[in-house]
Amino acid sequence: MVKIALAGASGQLAREIIDALVATQKHEIIGLDPAPLPSLPGVTWVKTTYEDKSELVRLLQGVETVMCFFPVHFDPGSATQKRLIDAAVEAGVKRYAPSEWATGTKLETSLDGIPWYAGKVEITRYLEDLNKEKKVIEYTRFQVGAFMNYLGHPHKTSEHVKTLSFLFDFEKQRATLVKDRLDDVVVWTTVQDIAGVVARAVEYEGEWPAIGGITGTRLTVREMLQIGEAIGKPFTIDWLKLEDIEAEERDMGSFADFDLHTASPEVVEAFLNMALKGILLGISRGAYDITDEWNKILPDYKFTQVEDFLKKVWGGK
User: What domain of life does the native source organism fall in (predicted)?
Assistant: First the structure.
């Protein structure tokens, strides 16, 4: 049994992971969040603002693994997550998973396009500095690429994660892509596989890899278009020029504190249009090409493949 604390436990991906941990019937789970959450077997919900370090140290006593799910763009200077990390170290926590859950090792070169992820880079540096002289906490940066479940939108393919149309809209059979960039790579991973890997990672007896890539399916843009053709969902493509996206990059920071779930439909539409261009810029620089450290550690884990997922969701529809 492992005692696990999840910070930002009401987050959609956090809830998927909590369900996977609960299903093992092995662990003591603490869900940290400002809001109360529904009763689940084996889960203790603790209300906290994360502002009091001494309170966090007390709450993390006896915890082996802390996982963070903060939206980093709502944490100026990453102050809250740094406080959580410091409290984890002081409480003697063995393992920490920062709030990554998306892009890979080339994120830093893409921050002009996706500035809302800057906190991920800042926390990486903070953890590296903590362990510079000697290892004070083991950590892994769970990097997963894009949620494959988005490819099934608007169909419900996950329990908690709400989907949106992302890059490839299979319902409308449209895609927005960058001209002459068909060999750019995106890794697609289902939220169920992310949760499944995490549930195994907390039990892993070896040392966590600092970079913890989880690769469901690694596809080029060209290969995704070919899959669409094969399952009877060919795309009409809106082509953008990379140089035009780069010229607009200075405006992308205007949404750095944006909340997709509470904004008006008009603001959401404006954000998605801007964010799509930023993400396409990131893809062109390799930000969504994920490594496979956890695939290698867990060679028996069977990941859902994009083509199988799409056939299940869209076959005959």
Answer: Eukaryota
pLDDT > 60? residue 268: yes
Candidates 255, 297, 205, 231; CA nearest to 73 is 255
CA angle, corner 199, sides to 1 and 37, nearest 5? 85
Structure confidence by residue, pLDDT tens digits, 160-179: 999 988 899 999 999 999 99
CATH number of the domain at 3-144+190-213, please?
A: 3.40.50.720
Domain spans in the chain, listed from the N-terminal domain onward? 3-144+190-213, 146-187+217-288+304-314
